[in-house]
Structures are given as C-alpha cells and as structure tokens.
Design goal:
Helix content is about 10%, strand content about 35%. By secondary structure, the chain is mainly β.
C-alpha cells in the first residue's frame, strides 16, 4: 500500500464480477445472454483528511461517508436497475466512445441496434453507476490514479469447431481445433470507462482495456480493427462467429457511422497513472464542500477478438483508485 500524504487522498473501489453462461449454444456476441453478479465489493477512502463520497442514483443517494459498504452499494444499484444484481445480465455490446452503446442484431446480415436508451435497465448488458466526491480544499482535482482489471483464474476451453485465433501461440500456429483445450481470460474482452458528469452532460471520458499479453490483443489502440485492415475479421471471436453462424460481423462494423465520431470502437488506454483522467472540482462550494461526480461503466466489447464463449463462467476483478490532488 502506498503511503498517503495530506496532498494525496485515495478512494479505492474494487469488485468481483462473475460471468456465468445460461446456455450451452452461445458464441461470440453472446446470443443467449450471460449473468453477472457482484460477489464482493470494497469502497474506502483512506486518508486522515476529509475526502468523502457517495453513490448517486435515480432511486436515491447513499449518505456522504468515507466508506460505502457492500450491502448499501448493492441495494442502491438494485434499486436503479429494478432487480437484484444476481439477475443482471452482461451482454456483449459495442461503443465508439465509452458513453453510448449498441448491440448486434443478427438477421439476413449482421447490423447494430439503435443506441441503448437507458443503461440502468434489466437488459442493457452494461454495468453503470455514479460516484460523487467532495472536499473542502479549493482548486482541487480528482484523478483516476490506478486500475486493476484481471481474471480470477484462467478458463480452460475447447471450441465447438475449428477456427483461427488472433494469437499464433494458440493451437497450431493459431489454428484451434476442438481437441485444443487452451487458457482464456474473461477480462481480455472487458472495458472500463470513466467520465466526469455535470447534470446530464458527460466529458473527459476515457476507456481502459487490459494491455497486450500472451492471451490478449489490444483493440482500441488505433491498430488492427480500428484501421479497417482487410483480413482482421478472419480471426479471433469474429472468425468463430462466422464458423458457427455462417454470418460475418463485418457488415455491422462497416455500417458504423463515423461522421461525428471517427473511431469504430472506443480508443483505449492500457495504463492509468493519473495523467489521462484529471477533473476539477466545482468552484462554488455547498455547505463548505466542493464536489465532482464521475460515471463508471464496466462492459464487454463485442468487437473484441477475445469475446469468445471461452470467457463464460469466469470471474473479472476490477479495482479503481482515485486520488485528490491540489
């Protein structure tokens, strides 16, 4: 644990998400649907000084505190979603900027749905919540200072048929057959977006994905699919989807409107050090406190190479750390 000083006040958020398959005939883009449950959560402000926060929701806010317990958090989240969180379903979605989300529609060709109007609904497939921070310090900034996104353990999985993996180390030079049982990691397809929100206006949003590794190919770094490079739909989850369904997701990809947002999937960062997300507290105090609100989303990017059946039944560990700096 790093030493905390009067100029560095930390808020640490951690949760474990379980991605559970509800059927056995699923494939990329998860046509059957999955469940996600929050198994454990810890929210703490670790400081000798007064950095406080609260959960902010449509169904009500929690009290200002330096600690938000698991029971209160889940109660607030369930009230906003209108269900217990054990009933919440993760669904593969896609986003161009980490704020608005669409789902895949599989018909004669693949296409994308209209933007999901409300993410805090039963079938949105996105976990979303808001935290508001307050301090008595003037001219202070809140920084997203570190992040953890990993899997509790590897999932051992063999595909239903032969496909080409995006990593040549899988199978035989990337050709994976039903006889190849390999290790897959749910967090490789996950994203975390964090933005500042004032009333209904969101700004400063950045999206994090796990860095390149032996199992993970980074999608949102401006390479591979972001360039529209030919051949990229013939590997990973996209190739598996086509082999299973006889349909390609490329039609949905090609139809994404880039007139106002130039990227087809959200550009991402693969490390967090406080410089990417730093937002100012308000300048008008209320009861002696200056406040700032952030909105946090956890989701599975459907266009990710690693959005395979393999990640079902796995657990994702998420931890966010925010720091107060003058």
């Amino acid at each position: 644990m790093k030493k905390l000083t009067k100029k560095t006040l930390m808020a640490i958020f951690a949760l474990v998400l379980a991605v559970v398959a509800l059927g056995t005939t699923t494939y990329a883009w998860f046509t059957v649907g999955q469940a996600v449950s929050t198994e454990s959560i810890e929210l703490n402000v670790k400081s000798e000084e007064g950095l406080e926060f609260r959960y902010v929701g449509d169904a009500g806010n929690s009290e200002w505190s330096q600690f938000l317990d698991e029971t209160t958090f889940l109660q607030r989240l369930a009230a906003d979603y209108g269900q217990t969180m054990s009933q919440f379903r993760f669904d593969a979605v896609t986003s161009q900027e980490g704020q608005t989300f669409k789902k895949l529609v599989v018909g004669s060709i693949t296409s994308l749905s209209a933007p999901i109007a409300d993410l805090q609904t039963t079938d949105s497939g996105v976990l979303e919540f808001k935290l508001e921070f307050r301090t008595k310090k003037q001219s202070a900034n809140l920084k997203w200072s570190s992040v953890t996104l990993n899997s509790t353990e590897a999932i051992q999985w063999a595909p239903g048929l032969t496909f080409t993996h995006n990593k040549s180390t899988y199978g035989s030079s990337g050709t994976v057959t039903p006889s190849n049982t390999e290790a897959y990691y749910p967090h490789d397809a996950a994203r975390i977006s964090v933005g500042k929100i004032v009333d209904t206006t969101e700004s400063n949003t950045i999206v994090y994905e796990a860095p390149n590794s032996a199992s993970n190919s980074v999608l949102g770094d401006g390479t591979d699919l972001n360039t529209g490079k030919p051949g990229t739909f013939a590997k990973g989850a996209h190739d598996y989807f086509q082999k299973m369904t006889g349909k390609s997701v490329q039609a949905a990809w090609d139809a994404i409107d880039t007139s106002s947002i130039t990227t087809r999937v959200a550009p991402t960062v693969t490390s967090i050090n406080g410089s990417q997300f730093s937002v100012a507290f308000g300048t008008t105090p209320s009861a002696g406190y200056y406040t700032v609100m952030v909105i946090i989303r956890v989701y599975l990017e459907g266009f990710d190479y690693d959005a395979l059946n393999a990640i079902l039944n796995g657990k994702i560990n998420v931890a966010l750390e925010f720091a107060l700096a003058e």
